[in-house]
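New to this. Explain these C-alpha cells.
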Amino acid sequence: MSSTWQTERRWLGYAGLVPFAGCCAVLVFAVPVEWSHLAHETLRHYAAVIASFLGAVHWGVASDDRDGLQHARLRWGIMPALIAWTLLALPGRAALLGFAALFGLILIVDRYLLPVLDDAYRTLRLQLTGGVILCLLTAVPFVQQAS
C-alpha cells in the first residue's frame, strides 16, 4: 500500500474527529444555552452517522469470503446503524454514554470480524475510536439533563 494513500487515510480519519471535538468544546466551554443544545444534538447525530459508516465497512469486506465470516459481517454490518438509531431516542447524557459504549463495541467486533484489514488501519481505528470515546465521555457532564 502506498505511503501517500496511508497518509491520506490518516488525515481523513483525524479530520473526522473534528466534529466530535468541536461539539465537545462548545459543550465544555458553555457558550449560550442554545449553542449547548445545538452542540449536543449535533454530537449525537454525528455519532450516529459515523457508527453507521463503521458498520458499512463490513458490507464492503463481506464480498471477500476467504475466511468464512461473510454472513457474520453482513449481519453485524447493520447493527451499528440500528443501535445508533435507538440511541438517538435516549435523553441527553444516556445517549452520549450509549454512543461511547457503542464505539467501544464496534472496535471490539471489528478486531474479530475484520482480520483481513491491515495493521495500519487497525492502529488508526484504535486511535480514532479512543478520540471519539474521549470526546463523548468528556461531553457527558456538560449536557443539560432536559436535552
In short: Residues 3-142 form one domain. The two ends are 45 Å apart (CA to CA). The CA atoms of residues 16 and 50 lie 9 Å apart. The chain has one domain: 3-142.
